[in-house]
Automatic annotation (TrEMBL):
Coiled-coil residue windows: none
Lineage per the UniProt record: Bacteria, Bacillati, Bacillota, Bacilli, Bacillales
Boundaries of every NADP-dependent oxidoreductase domain copy: 10-248
Gene that this polypeptide is encoded by: pgoN
Protein name: Promiscuous glyoxal/methylglyoxal reductase
UniProt site positions, description: Lowers pKa of active site Tyr: K62
Superkingdom of the organism of origin: Bacteria
Alphabetically ordered keywords of this record: NADP, Oxidoreductase
Gene3D superfamilies: NADP-dependent oxidoreductase domain
GO molecular function, one term: methylglyoxal reductase (NADPH) activity
Oxidoreductase in keyword set: yes
Residues given in the record as substrate binding sites: H95
Top EC category: oxidoreductase
SUPFAM superfamilies cross-referenced by the UniProt entry: NAD(P)-linked oxidoreductase (SSF51430)
Length: 263
């Protein structure tokens, strides 16, 4: 799985085709979509038209809350495959645990079945907190390959990262740039960017990379799509990493997954 991918949350179907093609031509080889983004068909069309062999692209999609449950998830997966126009995905995730619904174990067992059938090369979860992960580890037969969570310098998620490391679960950051908000204008980050002759977004993405976190920044701006990929030609010092680590404020841009109810 590439450590840097391209996310397409909130990119409308009519726009997603062009930006995914742009990202693939820029060099991204990992695309993160979801059933609820309602753009899987455009993503799939871009993958096919890119001319890049399917096996060189790492494709992730997710089962939505309303489709949780064993049979429902198997059906939702087939719908996603059809929309994407592929015969397998590389990673299939439970989008949210929805603990109040208490269906994520049934959903997980459906993902295990899809994995055993080879329809998805890997299975994982998203927005799972430690108690939800513990239950999967205790009651499941496959360890999640990935936990995709909100993660950026203002929400560094150290506890979940430590737990995941202990259990060989890769951590993937959603909203790695804090949705383009406060982190990009934070003086500690802009100062490091000036010193390194890089942009604040590149400094943040480099922080993820050096922590071993997978990041999937989203941009519909061609220059930013390229900028976000150009993070492998410089290094942050241990002191700079510590300065970024010290910015944590447990500040979410999204809802707390523990408190979410069915929509
Ligand atoms: N599993 C989940 O529950 C979940 C939740 C949210 C997101 N995600 C995934 O994570 C991906 C990324 O998260 P996200 O889209 O919420 O936020 P993000 O990637 O942190 O930030 C995207 C925002 O930052 C701007 N931006 C991107 N690159 C920039 C740069 N170099 N300089 C300045 N601004 C820049 C973008 O603007 P422009 O587009 O206008 O350039 C956009 O407004 C999503 O697309 C999705 O695939 C998953």
């Amino acid at each position: 799985m590439p450590q840097l991918g391209y996310g397409v949350f909130k990119v409308p179907e009519e726009e997603v085709y062009q930006v995914v093609l742009e990202a693939l031509h820029a060099g991204y080889r990992s695309i993160d979509t979801a059933m609820i983004y309602e753009n899987e068909a455009g993503v799939g069309r871009a993958l096919r038209d890119s001319g890049i062999p399917r096996e060189e692209i790492f494709l992730t999609t997710k089962v939505w809350n309303a489709n949780q449950g064993y049979a429902e998830t198997l059906a939702a997966f087939e719908t996603s495959l059809t929309k994407l126009g592929v015969d397998y995905v590389d990673l299939y995730l439970i989008h949210l645990p929805m603990p109040n619904e208490d269906r994520y174990m049934d959903t997980w067992h459906a993902l295990e079945e899809l994995y055993k059938q080879g329809k998805t090369k890997a299975i994982g979860v998203s927005n799972f907190h430690i108690p939800h992960l513990k239950r999967i580890l205790e009651e499941g037969t496959v360890v999640p390959a990935v936990n995709q969570i909100e993660l950026h310098p203002f929400l560094s998620q150290e506890e979940i990262r430590t737990f995941c490391k202990e259990h060989d679960i890769l951590v993937e950051a959603w909203s790695p740039l804090m949705k383009g908000r406060d982190a990009l204008t934070e003086p500690v980050i802009t100062d490091i960017a000036t010193t390194k002759d890089k942009t604040p977004a590149q400094v943040i993405l480099r922080w993820h990379i050096q922590h071993g976190i997978i990041a999937i920044p989203k941009s519909v701006t061609p220059s930013r799509i390229r900028e976000n990929l150009a993070v492998f030609d410089f290094e942050l010092s241990a002191t700079e990493m510590q300065q970024l680590d010290a910015l944590n404020q447990n500040q979410r841009t999204g809802s707390n997954p523990d408190e979410m109810h069915k929509k």
